[in-house]
Each structure stands twice: as structure tokens, then as C-alpha cells.
Amino acid sequence: MASAEKQPMVVGIDESEQSSYALEWTLDHFFVPCSANPPFKLILVHAKPSPSSAVGFAGPGAAEVLPFVEADLKKTAARVVEKAKELCSSKSVHDVMVEVVEGDARNVLCEAVEKHHASILVVGSHGYGAIKRAVLGSVSDYCSHHAHCTVMIVKKPKIKH
């Protein structure tokens, strides 16, 4: 059974504190305890917005702005990936696949589940209330309904004083 292929686990990553917490929690609970032979193949996926969606307008001046927006989005993606790799490395988790895919996070994560035949998708929760969720749309909420696998939503506990 040791030679059996491991089930893929996709973890959605972005620049948020919630995303970092979800990755760290996942590493601590699924990879660190069995570091010699983790039960899953770890795949980190970052959805990079398209420059046009980040700018949010078209018309005069938009074409001149897009290259700068694209450069900034690439820098942000590189920072997100580097931070996630550093966290994995600090937990002695080295067998990690990382993907940066342009598009809406909801679609990117659900497509990554399909592409890798993931058995689990892990996403962080921003803990939005019902109104913000209805207006903004929640990536975790969308994925929990549309991803064809188990979806684990990791929410950072609030610290009580």
C-alpha cells in the first residue's frame, strides 16, 4: 500500500492572513504529524486576477495602465507563493506543487480540483457576515457548493481578551 498514489489536496492561497492561517493549520494537522509519509500530495493554488478585472474599467487610458497593473499582480503572486513555500519549508514539508492561475479564485480553485482529481480542497474563511457574503460573494461558500470534493473551510479563531 505504500506505493499507492497519494490523494491530492488543493490549498487555495492568497495574500490574506486567513489564507496563511488555513495553510499553517493544514500543515500542522495533516503533514507535520506524519512528515515521513504524509497522506496527501500537497498542491498550493493562487488565483491571480486578470489586469482588466483588477482595473475594473475600459476606455481611454485603460490600455496604458494595464502593464503596470499586470506587473503589480505578478509581484503580489510571487510574494504569496514565496510566503507559502517558506511556511511549508519551516514545517519541513518540501514535496509541494505550486500553481499560479489567472482568473477568479472561485473558478480557479474548482478547476484545480478537477484537474488534479483532488480529494480535499482547503480554503481560508474571512468570516464575512451574511450581507458582505451576499454582496461580495464568498470564495469558500462558492467552492463548498461547486467543487467536486470535500471542502474544508478553515477559520481563524477570534482571540478573546
Determine Rg (CA atoms, Å). Answer: 17 Å
Cross-sheet strand order for the largest sheet? 3-2-1-4-5
Query: Mean pLDDT, rounded to whole units?
Result: 87
Q: Which percent range describes the beta-strand content?
A: 15-25%
Q: Can you tell me the overall shape?
A: globular
Number of strands: 5
Task: List low-pLDDT spans.
Answer: none
Distance between the termini: 48 Å
- Taken in chain order, the helices and strands follow as EHEHHEHEHHE
What structural class do helix, strand and pairing data support?
Answer: alpha/beta
Largest sheet: number of strands, sense, barrel closure: 5 strands, parallel
Number of helices: 6
Assign a percent range to the helix content: 40-55%
Describe the overall structure.
This protein has 161 residues and is of the alpha/beta class. The protein is 47% helix and 22% strand. It contains 6 helices and 5 strands. The protein has helices spanning 17-31, 51-55, 62-90, 105-116, 130-136, 139-146; strands spanning 7-13, 40-48, 96-102, 120-125, 150-155. Strands 3-2-1-4-5 form a 5-stranded parallel sheet, sandwiched between helices. Helix 4 (105-116) packs parallel to helix 6 (139-146). The protein is globular. 25% of the residues are buried.
